[in-house]
Amino acid sequence: MPVVFRPTLDPNKLAPFVDPLPIPPVAKPIGTRAVPGNRSREVPYYRITMRQIDVQLHRDLKPTPCWSYGSSVPGPTFETRSGEGLTVEWANELPSEHFLPIDHTLAGAESNLPQVRTVVHVHGAITPPESDGYPENWYPPGRSLVCHYPNEQEAAMLWYHDHAMGINRLNIYAGLAGTFFVRDATEDKLNLPKGKYELPLILFDRFLTPDGELYYPTSNARQRPWVPEVFGNAFLVNGKLLPYFDVEPRRYRFRVLNAANGRFYHLSLDNGMLFTQIGTDQGLLGAPSPAKRLTLAPGERADLVIDFAGHSGERIVVNNDVLPMMQFRVGKGKVEDNSAVPAVLRPIKGIPESAATKNRELTLDEVDDLTGQSYTMLLNNTHWAMPVTEKPALNSVEIWSFVNLTDDVHPIHLHTVRFQILDRRSFNLAQYLVHRKLVLTGDPMPPGPEERGWKDTVRATPGVVTRIIVRFEGYTGRYVWHCHILEHEDNEMMRPYEIVPRG
Description:
It is a single chain. The protein is mainly beta. It contains four helices and 34 strands. The chain has helices at 168-174, 185-188, 429-435, 486-490, and strands at residues 3-4, 19-20, 31-35, 38-55, 64-69, 78-81, 86-92, 120-123, 144-149, 156-162, 177-183, 198-208, 214-215, 218-219, 234-237, 240-241, 243-247, 251-258, 265-269, 275-280, 283-291, 294-296, 301-307, 315-320, 323-330, 358-368, 375-379, 397-404, 410-414, 419-426, 457-460, 464-471, 477-483, 494-499. Strands 12, 13, 15, 16, 18, 20, 21 and 23 form an eight-stranded mixed sheet that branches. The longest helix has 7 residues, at 168-174. The radius of gyration is 22 Å and the shape is globular.
């Protein structure tokens, strides 16, 4: 599909590593509120306002108009504990007109709806359905929604972002995202780096105009501006372009989030150093996994420890492929470091395949409109508005097999549950397209060590069947599953599913 680009800023012409890495502020409760359905129990109450602010992305740029949660992009970090719930009032005080191009032909983005609509999803949270950020539960400026997050789950890095139907990609691109940490006693006992030695690294990319404003590309079809993917040339970390961060020669823990619309990150350190991955989307791995390269699809997270001991005085660049993203400046001398990375992090018990009561074969599809101007992305060849077809019973176990019929890697996210990756296996694409018959052609490929923990987002690769096993714990009600390439999600690659009472 032809894409129209205006002249954009060349970030390579900006001085690198002149701005310190910003750390998002920690959200503070403003009181307490009763838990829904249990007025005798009070939990912390937060009020987070969505508004338009100006953000200094780089020293040499004019401030950039963005949309924010609170007063920063990314928004404030929530620090919570397992079993200790909280309530958030998400208040929409954004302008009434959108500054990015809406495609009114997309489902849920029709021209008779308010231009600016929001609803918040805490990605990875086990929540009652009314607090999950269902895409059609949006609300316009001047309104707010109170959501309850029970936090009945193990320690993990979650994140929150907009989820409004049909314009989700635009709202997140404008800046609506932040992190949400759940802590627990098991993590506390491990003596991992903490306090000022633990910090989030929130990665996303953008296009900027020469004046430093956000630019979102469009197709050359005037009435249908949607484009299939957006890969910006300006890489931002915690909302800053090419920042630096001063570190001591000791261990640090970095909680890395890919919050990009469509870009997959392939991260490494320019001096060839190893880092140690200790966790993934839904918390700690069973054991540390050392590596020189980290791949993260949109929506995925990684928990990393980097030991700067022995690198006193060095300047180490974090690269995405061969392009720089940020710089670590290692201080000189020796420091005391009592942290550790134990050989065993958290026991992870695999869900046996025999526990599954249902196996679902679900295709990932791309439908061309035959003109070459546009196409639709679908799950199981089914549009959003069609009847719900996936209705797992509460506390049941199912195996979902994603049969990827497209040329793209799709990061598939299921709301309100965590899962384990079973394997990936190639299949005969021609046989499937002609006869709808799944003929497997390769040996099962188990997940790598970095994927052997609990996940909520999985990369489904082309020509491959990707199998996950899921226990549908938590609550009954309607949720969604979707591709986390935001342009795909906004163009029908999202489906409702419903957890039903066990019969």
